[in-house]
# Entry
Amino acid sequence: MGERFLRRTFDTFQITAKNQSAARAAKRYAEGFAELLPKQGQPEPGRNGLFIVGPMGTGKTHLAAAIANQLIKQGTPVICMTMIDLLERIKRTFAKGDVDEGSILRLYKTVPLLVIDDMGKEQPTEWAVSTVYNIVNGRYEAYLPTIVTTNYDSKALIARMTPQATRDSVTAEATIDRLNEMCRVIILDGESWRGMAGGPSGTDQSSKHNEKNARPAAEDRRLAPAPRPAEHRTITHERRLYHGIL
# Structure
């Protein structure tokens, strides 16, 4: 996660009529995260991840980063990075020869929350698609929550993740099928903040003013309310928690 998004919190997310439902769902997710983790002897946690979908510049990464930053502040280990950076980090670490590939992948499979930003932007090589599937499937089998942001729906994402050399979409389809079972969907719509004055980072006062005057927007009905503990607003980088490998 780049320095820009280390500054992204719920307080700096500017609320509008089109994004307020998504913002509320993301905030509830962060506040109730402890209840989403698998517990021995308890029922399956069900869909405990998020699939945040929408056009470019609508705040997908901001909300995902806000969740990550809040949980890290509370002491929950989180890895948050783009799909391209994640694959590059694995490749670079493995190339050093200090850690075997299984150990590297184990980190991404077992961290309490993995946030994959911009899925579908990576080069769809056989190695890349296989590695993504390996990580997602590991988390699927362990019932661990995963957050994905993307510009694409499932069909388009499968096409984007299918290697051009072979046109074999089986691994891409299996990856998205698992994510669909693991994640609830949050849809963000509207114009790109990057083309508007002020950007997505309003002050606390302007955000609350916009939220007060905005009409409720459609929200994924599968997103159930979660308990609301006290808010935490400090930002920490996940590398501090995983400096040994990352």
Observations:
- Residues 197-246 have pLDDT under 50 and may be disordered.
- The first strand starts at residue 49 and ends at 53.
- The beta strands are 49-53, 78-82, 113-117, 146-150, 183-187.
- The CA atoms of residues 64 and 113 lie 11 Å apart.
